[in-house]
Protein: Acyl-CoA thioester hydrolase
Amino acid sequence: MRTNEIQFLINWGDTDMAGIVYYPNYFKWFDIAGHQFFRDCNLAPNQLDQEQGIILPMIDTRCNFEKPLYYDDTITVVTTAEEVNNKTIKLRHEVYRGEERTGHGYELRGWVKKMDDGIKAVPIPDDVREILETDKITKAKKPQFNA
Structure:
């Protein structure tokens, strides 16, 4: 399955009063990493919406926290298309500080089309499935600063 890596630098504002990364940041990193994953597949969410009326809403997400992260840590989020089902895509995220995994989780996103009467989950096209299921790794070039 396709894999993407992106790096982040932990900023002071990402930490709590104990100086440890505040847990919701993992979900922010998952979201950013997921969007970058789709961009690197030439499936940029904004482009899918504008050209095909396809959106990728979040259906479910989960995270397991294994080790604390601190200010000035550089982390790598490894994102893999773990499952490509008929109308959903499950992205697995693993967060590393160096070689040490600090947490992992997933996002389940729908393949949804905007229609005149609302939105509807539709089958993922074969060409998109092929892109997501191809073994390819895209690595980050430098750390991203959190917004």
About this structure: Helices lie at 24-40, 45-52, 126-133. The chain has a mean pLDDT of 93. The longest helix spans residues 24-40.
